[in-house]
Amino acid sequence: MSDALDFSRFLTPIARSAPPSGIVEVMRHGFSKPGIVPLWAGEGDLPTPPFICSAATRSMAAGETFYTHQAGIPELREALARYHDRVYGGLFGKPFSADRFVVTASGMHAIELALTAVAGPGDEVIVPTPAWPNFAAAAGLRGATVVQHPMRFGNDGWVLDVEALAEAVTPRTRAIFVNSPSNPTGWTADRATLQAILALSRRTGVWIIADEVYGRFFYGAEGERAASFHDILAEDDKVIFVNTFSKNWAMTGWRIGWMEVPPAIVETIVNLVQYTSSGTAVFMQRAAVTALEEGEGFLAHQVARSRRGLDIVAGTLGASSRVRFARPDGAFYLFFTIDGEPDTRKLGIRLVDEANVGMAPGTAFGEVGAGWMRMCFARGEERLSLAASRLKEWLDRKEQML
Ligand SMILES: Cc1ncc(COP(=O)(O)O)c(C=O)c1O
Question: Is 204 found in the same domain as 125?
């Protein structure tokens, strides 16, 4: 390219240094391969149910196509409060207040707003890894320094050592991301771990950005949902929740989510909404109300389907002595490692070519993820069984070659 056409030199260093997604390379390679089973993306294969779509089309047909409340329509904020009452049984001994909620243009937008609100140039943000790459990239775009805190994998699965986490906190630390259940590992914090992290936040004044997006996709024995900061929160705790309609109600393409914050900062957050999305379309918000009020059956169906999916992939891969993983308690990913295959960037490409299965390389999820692969199991039984048997055949072939 001639210098004259190299416009990138005129862009900001921050824009230029945003990292490419580590998943895209495999996706590009395998996207149009005939018969591929793609398990690389972080979404299920079910479309948004018709009863949710109809709420949007009805609203559009009724002319709800204008600018609207930056914080979200009152009906949705109230529905969010009622939903949280149902799922978490109130907050601080009272029903949830609608004033705590701000509607956003996706979970990702909620993360961006949370970071803009609490961290900027010169600040540090701690991300326990392996982690969804967008946390670190979004912090970097705000000029903050990302401190990766590696979780440990051992006989007890993935472990977040909160004492070691405390050592990563410096006077410049502004926030810690806590994504439980985790994308990509499925690690799900128990209440004691959440309590220890909250104690750290209380001691140091550092914000917690709590991403409980997968909190309802829970396969542990103890209940219907994962443990949540809501279970232990006090009124003066510095916790910002980021969440989305994407996963629970199969609405990844819609781009609508929410934040839940202490009421004292709602106005500031709403101002940030003004200068980013300027609000979310009313017809999408009507659909979101319907999802919250009528979507429990669909969500339960998705969770049951994912649980079966987990049994299929864990059963098949678990039978191989070369494959190791911790059975996830939540989310819908199997994060696994294959002995003798340390370079998973290349492995992702090879598995497309040699097994016709598409998965995300662990390198996309932080340094500690190198050597691991992520497979999404939010799929129907047939597709997953096909993917699992292809992987098993591939493993058997490699075994014979050893
Ligand atoms: C952990 C986590 N948080 C947030 C999101 C954001 O979801 P969305 O931007 O689709 O609402 C995702 C999506 O994959 C995720 O995995």
Answer: yes
pLDDT digit string (tens) for the chain, length 402 residues: 788 888 999 999 999 988 888 888 899 999 889 999 999 999 999 999 999 999 999 999 999 999 999 999 999 999 999 999 999 999 999 999 999 999 999 999 999 999 999 999 999 999 999 999 999 999 999 999 999 999 999 988 999 999 999 999 999 999 999 999 999 999 999 999 999 999 999 999 999 999 999 999 999 876 689 999 999 999 999 999 999 999 999 999 999 999 999 999 999 999 999 999 999 999 999 999 999 999 999 999 999 999 999 999 999 999 998 999 999 999 999 999 999 999 988 999 999 999 999 999 999 998 899 999 999 999 999 999 999 999 999 998 877 776
Judge if 150 and 260 occupy the same domain. yes
In whole angstroms, what is the distance from residue 92 CA to residue 87 CA?
A: 14
Atom of ligand 1 nearest to the CA of 256: 11
pTM: 0.96
Domain of residue 115, CATH code: 3.40.640.10
96 and 171 in a single domain? The answer is yes
Same domain, 39 and 105: no
Nearest Cα to Cα of residue 247 among 218, 216, 292, 219: 216
Best mutation site among 108, 187, 214 for ligand 1, i.e. most ligand atoms within 8 A of its Cβ?
108
CA of 244 to the centre of ligand 1 (A): 7
The closest-lying atom of ligand 1 relative to the alpha carbon of residue 252 is: 10
Residues 341, 209 share a domain? no
The per-residue b/e assignment along 298-317, b for 16 or more CB within 10 angstroms, e otherwise, is: bbeebbebbeebbbbbbebb
Backbone angles phi, psi at 284, to 5 degrees: -70, -35
Domain containing 265 equals 51-293
One domain, residues 308 and 173: no
Domain total for the chain? 2
